[in-house]
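Researcher: Final request for today, and then I'll write up notes for the group meeting. The sequence and the SMILES for pyridoxal-5'-phosphate follow.
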Amino acid sequence: MDLHDLNLHRGQGAPIYLQLYQRYREAIEGGKLQPGDRVPSVRSLASELSLACGTVEMAYQMLVSEGYFIARGAAGTVVSPRLVKLNESPSAKASCPDADASRLANSVGEALPFQLGLPALDAFPRKTWARMAGRTLRTLETIAMTYPNPAGYEPLRRAIATYLGISRGITCTHEQVFVTAGYRGALELVCRALLQPGDVGWYEDPGYMLARQFLEHAGVRLMPVPVDEEGLKVSEGLRQARHARFAVVTPTHQSPMGMALSLPRRLELLDWAVRSNGWIIEDDYDSEFRYMGRPLPALKSLDRDGRVLYTGTFSKVLFPGLRIAYLVVPASQVGRFRDAVEIFPGPGSIFPQATIADFMEQGHFSRHLHKMRSLYAERRDHLVDALTQISGDRLQVQPQAGGIHVLAHLTTRQNDLLIAGAAASRGLAVQPLSHWRMRAAPQGGLLMGFANFATPQEAAAAVKELNAVLHEH
Ligand SMILES: Cc1ncc(COP(=O)(O)O)c(C=O)c1O
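Model: Predicted protein-pyridoxal-5'-phosphate complex:
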């Protein structure tokens, strides 16, 4: 790649290190740089472009942390040879750190230590699942071979409506349930049915990075609204953009900070939506896992006026390879959403949907959740104990009542992007909190998945490796 292709705009737009990071990503995704290609050293690129070494280093660390580059010490830095599949598959081009981490893991066939967003892959009841899937195939009726309902397979929609009634306090009919291709499929449907490009929405800051990327791509404008120990600061949202069209929230377990939205804030948010005809998109991505007290009911359970669009996913409770999530829309909006799905690819094949429906109806789903709740409580302790004992002087674990990740704040003034980059070059998939922020904040943090630490020893070994990185920097 020619260095002129980097085309940096000094003194305008994003900081230079971000521009540099972005240009490299584009070059890799566009095929200008191929897996295995060598890139200039930090020092030579800095001198070639008249930049500070720290600026180039920051961009390189981010590229390493996201799996684009591999730093091989004295042997130089190369574009990761594991990205071969990236250039082959056009669908892989909509890239982001979370997706990159999972691509990296998939290419080596296992979860990376600390990898976010993955359930315990070793504990999934594969035999039962295979039996159900086999039955789905064997008992296929001719009607199931025709074009499926784009709103989703009806028995699954019914099973979801029943499950939400029992476990999340949500009263809905199966007609209000739309099965989607992952959470972003649900967001896409909301954008098509209810929003216009240019609409303004409140977005939790920090908040779920992939959804932010998706929504920005869809052309809506996100207004960062800070969170505190009670969750989204509704008063800030009102102050900044009272007439916003929508708000995206994670009320049960704020992503990534982990607190719940307090009841007074829930009521304030619903009041805003009613007064301003706004839509609340409730992302209830991992509410099933709670280790202290009872699971909190969904915000949707308080929605008397039909302003909440509720989303849930099978990624954490089953596995993300399914790519199946769901959206519950207010009864008054069912017609609009039905029209929208008619012109939309929908959730895809009925086979995984039918298998999930059987899995739920036959009680395997609730048994699995029950088992995973106690397993995750144990695995979370493995990680928290190891962090406290080994890295307690540098990392402060934030108490979280649920979920499958922990957040540890850096007690030093170390830069979380650099730490995560250096950790990635040792094969550790911690994510820097700064990546999830829309507005910069002084204190950095590391996000870590714990679901795949099967023993205290595994957790301790990974934390020791991370600790070495913390001490080196
Ligand atoms: C905050 C949040 N929302 C939603 C999801 C679910 O996304 P998907 O259904 O696309 O796997 C995730 C998955 O990691 C998440 O972290």
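Model: Residues 216 and 249 are 16 Å apart (CA to CA). The chain has 16 helices and 15 strands.
Researcher: Thanks, that's everything.
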